[in-house]
Specification:
alpha+beta, Nucleoside Triphosphate Pyrophosphohydrolase, Metallo-beta-lactamase, Chain A, 3 domains, seven-stranded mixed beta sheet, 11 helices
Length: about 450
């Protein structure tokens, strides 16, 4: 568990917030409070003052260091000069167990008597400013801000009373027997469902979409077991459900989805290719007593913030895969086009590397504000797509000379993936096959 600190800097009726750079690995493009990880060297109390009493030395040391690095702000000097009125532990955020990288983050509210002039570290911060909590809450409600739950809860509490020293709930509120339902973007609810997916992922993000009085759609429910299915049913209890949408035919996106459709008596929306592949792979009985509705590029699914959500065809990882986005491109659900936990497999069945690169480039060119993958957390901007594209080109550059020298799949695998776990080698071989097919299509052949 990684430990971190965050500074809720308050002056009069305003709070200072930053937007993290979109290329950062942790919470890219998120609105946040300044702060960061507690390092091994953060163990010496940075100053002596009554305001600091009762707080762990490591927390204080990390807070003072991070504020100096990110904002060029000397908190020790501000404390000694009487420019700090209070320092309080506002709340402790704990990353849920379903996330691969977990944090315990200590949020400290620091009330300032004078507003400092900050100099932002542009390596980590794309923008930062003072604002009222109410204005920041309106940004969130309008779907224009990406933020973690503890920050959102903090801002909503401060909007009611800037003097509060804590809030409840602070973390993600997971009710007994249910799954987490998270809104990193207002009106876009994500349920990370434990699924039979490929490591390092352990969950598939099921999305709940639809404005009030619009069609309510659940995307890619895929519980790994009867126990998880029961938890999903309980999570959905009290919510209207009008349809289930499947992004593509891989089982970790539809396992038990048709059972859920029958229980809720709702249709399943899917592409024609996905429909055919599921029936071919699982048989007619798998979709029995279920209304199947074929959708395609441009099909209007529902609405978000008054914007029509439409389907986008994104072949490459799977030839029938669909993404979703509102007309204003405030966000884009890309399914398995990318994930934040590692690279995407381009399988032999239904996969095509040329199509995959074209789909990546298409979404990059559309330039949506936020990317939502099926596995891992949302990312601000398209940097995650650009990295995936560059990774595939880098991999091709590794494979090309080996292929031209006459190396076979096994030799290429051993050279390019020397430390790969045995259980993942078959998947890597499929991606190698795709690179070879692309090289052949580019009229390259062994010498």
């Amino acid at each position: 568990m990684i430990e971190a600190v965050a500074a809720i800097l308050v002056h009069e009726e305003e709070v200072f917030v930053i937007k993290r750079q979109p290329y950062l690995r942790a919470f890219p493009g998120y609105m946040a409070f300044p702060g960061g990880k507690i390092d091994a060297g953060d163990h010496v109390r940075p100053a002596q003052h009554a305001l600091l009493d009762g707080h762990p030395d490591a927390h204080l040391s990390a807070l003072f260091r991070e504020l100096s690095e990110e904002l060029d702000f000397d908190l020790a000097a501000a404390v000694s000069k009487g420019n700090v009125r209070d320092i309080t532990l506002f709340g402790t955020a704990i990353t849920p167990a379903f996330e691969k990288t977990r944090f315990t983050a200590f949020y400290y509210k620091i009330v300032l008597a004078r507003r400092p002039a900050f100099k932002l570290d542009e390596n980590e911060i794309s923008e930062g400013d003072w604002s009222t909590a109410s204005r920041l809450c309106e940004l969130y409600r309008g779907g224009r801000a990406l933020m973690v739950v503890p920050m959102r809860n903090t801002l909503f509490e401060l909007a009611q009373d800037i003097s509060v020293t804590g809030c409840e709930p602070f973390n993600i509120d997971i009710r007994d027997g249910e799954l987490a339902c998270i809104e990193l973007i207002h009106g876009l609810r994500t349920i990370p469902v434990p699924s039979n997916t490929l490591p390092p992922a352990t969950t598939t993000n099921a999305l709940l979409l639809g404005d009030r009085n619009q069609v309510q759609v659940l995307v890619d429910p895929s519980p790994e077991s009867a126990e998880v299915y029961a938890r999903l049913i309980k999570t959905l209890s009290g919510r209207r459900l009008d349809a289930i949408l499947l992004s593509h035919h891989h089982p970790d996106h539809h396992e038990r989805a048709f059972e859920l459709a029958r229980e809720k008596n709702v249709p399943v929306l899917l592409s024609a290719i996905t429909r055919a592949r599921i029936k071919n792979d699982f048989g007619e009985q798998y979709t029995r007593n279920t209304q199947l509705i074929t959708i395609k590029e441009g099909t209007e699914i529902t609405h978000w913030k008054g914007q029509a959500i439409r389907a986008y065809e994104l072949p490459g990882h799977d030839d029938g895969m669909l993404g979703l986005a509102p007309d204003n491109l405030a966000w884009f659900f890309v399914a398995d086009l990318v994930q934040s936990l590692g690279s995407i497999v381009i399988p032999d069945e239904g996969g095509d590397l040329v199509d995959y690169l074209a789909s990546l480039q298409r979404v990059i060119d559309l330039n949506p504000k936020v990317i939502l993958p099926s596995h891992g957390i949302a990312s601000g901007g398209t940097e995650i797509l650009k990295r995936a594209y560059a990774h595939r080109i880098d991999r091709e550059n590794q494979i090309r000379p080996l292929y031209r020298a006459g190396a076979g799949t096994t030799q290429i695998l051993d050279s390019v993936y020397p430390d790969l776990a045995e259980g993942l080698k078959g998947l890597a071989e499929q991606t190698i096959h795709q690179h070879i097919r692309k090289l052949e299509a580019d009229s390259e052949s062994p010498i």
